[in-house]
Amino acid sequence: MDRNNIPQHIAIIMDGNGRWAMAQGKPRTFGHQAGVDTVRRITAECTRLGVKYLTLYTFSTENWNRPADEVAALMALVISALEEPLFKENNVRFRVIGDMDRLPADVQEKLKGLEERTAEYTAMTMVVALSYSSRWEITDTMKRIAKEAKDGKLDIGSITEDTLTERLQTSFMPDPDLLIRTGGELRISNYLLWQIAYSELYFCDTFWPDFTEENLHKAIESYQQRQRRFGKTEEQVENEETA
Ligand code: IPE
Ligand code: IPE
Ligand code: MG
């Protein structure tokens, strides 16, 4: 792994908790609990490597359709897992994205408090996507843009890609350089659709509770072997690199 070419922003679809638990004859929520340990390890490792943004898909809009007891267990886990020492010890700032209005009041309060108390930490920003889906985010942003236009604050002719980018919940961070999905599925599941237009994708079969620092290094090594062309030719990119 090249320590001088670490992705600035890593996004992760943390999948496979349920199957990991079921394979051991345990309830699915046991897998979610184990997944919290992985979050701790991977957060610490990303900070050590110099990653600046780590965006974790924790609960999707569609996950609200899961059995009520699993949803309740996940909400309780969010409350208990987001302990301040993790952020303080690693100098990590906490941010949340998603449809906060759908979350229980105590969860909303916890998240808001943690955002405030970690606002000064500078090593890395950990972004938790909770009650989040990309289509929801884009639709919500479109509504606000429409209102601005209706109120005469925005000229429709002046709308560009940046108009949307600047109003998305993710506006405070750059697009992901690397998107990792654990758990074997080869899909995006409504995550950061706008933002991953040019991200490098990495899929692995490892269930999230088993995902190690070594697995993370492998994903970064794969990222480092790729040439990001952003639509240009190989030759153009090589010339830019030597310039
Ligand atoms: C990911 O693990 C965590 C959440 C979606 C909350 P899953 O719960 O989806 O685990 P699998 O995919 O069923 O194994
Ligand atoms: C995606 O996992 C959402 C999170 C990891 C939070 P899912 O398990 O919900 O995705 P699908 O249903 O397999 O696409
Ligand atoms: Mg899943």
From TrEMBL:
Keywords: Transferase. It comes from the Bacteria. This is Isoprenyl transferase.
